[in-house]
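[job 4471] stage=fold_predict status=RUNNING
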Amino acid sequence: MKRALQVTTLVLLASFVVRLWAIGQVNIRDLKGFYNSHMYGKVIKHASIVRGSLNKKESFALNYMLAQSYMKLRFYLLAIHKFKSLLAKAPYQYEILNNIGACHYGLRKYKHALAYFSKSIEQNSNYYTAIKNYRLVKRYIRNKRSLPNIEESDAFADVSLK
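[job 4471] inference complete, writing structure tokens
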């Protein structure tokens, strides 16, 4: 019995070491693959392992993928916090402002969502996604009918990794 317990413990320890070694092999491209495969939980789980070995551009892309992953998994408060931390560094702030609005919409804070969609439109008056989202939420507030589906900005991480 004692021998079986020792063998079981060694097997568990070996599998743990193998998993740690395998996790250490994850890089930014792997995370991008998880993200593109809609494996948002894996992006969140493995992001801290990759974080230390990145240049500024890759670090921004990783944080953007993290924010998007939080949003896709409906962790809206975490997504808002992460998106806000990216605002100063973002070349296209209007996309991030739209996503913050989408998070507020997910939290059913419609006036906050409108404010962020409006800020997004102020930054880029031709940004159709924010214009559409603003109109949909405005219409919903006015009519109180069914909740519309709004759009998120999703292609930004692709731009950052090229």
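[job 4471] summary: The domain at 2-161 is CATH 1.25.40.10 (Serine Threonine Protein Phosphatase 5, Tetratricopeptide repeat).
[job 4471] exit 0
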